Amino acid sequence: MKRPCKTPFVIALLLASAAVSAQSSPAGTSTEQTPPPAAATDTMATAAAGETPAAALPSINAIATEAGTAPAVGAATGSAAGVAAGSDAAATPGSMAATPAIPAAAVEAAPAPVVTPTAAPAPAASAAAATTATSTSSAPASSAASASETAATKPEDRIGGVALAARISTLGFGVEAITKLNKRLNVRVQGNFFSYSDSIKESDVDYEGKLKLNTLGALIDIHPFAGGLRLTAGGFSNGNKIDLAASCKMGSECEVGDVTVSSDSSSSDPRVFGRAKFKSFAPYVGLGYGNAMKGFPFHFAFDIGVLVQGATQIDLGASGIARVTDNESGVTTTRDLATDPDFQEQLQKESANAEDSAKEYKYYPVVSLTIGYRLF
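and the corresponding structure tokens:
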């Protein structure tokens, strides 16, 4: 009895092996199946039947074409369904023309080789550019914040502000307010007040004196190096004055000009009084060290300068009934000092002599020490 031909089974097995090799081939390499050598084909045909010549066996690709499928190149035909179909067909006797083809469903079910395109990685430069852009966009905000902090910790860069201070000087006790025009110019407004009274007795003549200092000024401080050193210029409303009075007691004599005044027992003691005052406006120039609008809120300052108050003006007056003796003729008369013209003339001479002696007070020296606090 003749054995059934096993050629279809062998062909199906070869096709499955070719499909497995196509799927396992690395990406980018050719999946074309190299046909088996002719010698191997002849051997398989001889082992299967013995009566079919080797030349009558079609090639693997030809058989695949007859079965209605794609050639083995790139096709996945090695599924289990195809193998099973080949086994059933092998059980039916017949010639090669009756050899059943591999079912198309098995071919469609087999996954086709997928060639996945490799995405090129994003250039590192893109990430660097994004980082640079982020840094650039955040730079202005950082600069603004830095400038704001600097302005908050550096009051010398701000315009305005107010500081208050107390001072002691040869103008008296005072207070002042300071503000800033720019980093080299400050403006100060200050007031100074002082009063002092005293009385002495000499040669039976009572002398009384009262010193009153009262100035109100506006000053500009120039800081040439934007530091503590300052040059100051300004002016004061000058209310400084000195009041003097002399009383001639019984038995005492007071000389006024070219006459001598003595008390008359029938009246009150004669009295000569006077006032020394200065120009109502006095310029000021000075040099000092200290800047209330820079550095710590607490500040100290020292100044030396001069108040140009001009010539001293001295006004004299008299009151009371007294005996007046002319020093040249020796004649003594009783006069009312407040109204007698001759005595008033002597008072004018005495005022001129006093003003001449007071010329040295035309420039009043000012030395001051200040301590204060900056409010904002």
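(Above: one complete record from the training split.) Confidence is low (pLDDT under 50) at residues 24-110, 112-140.
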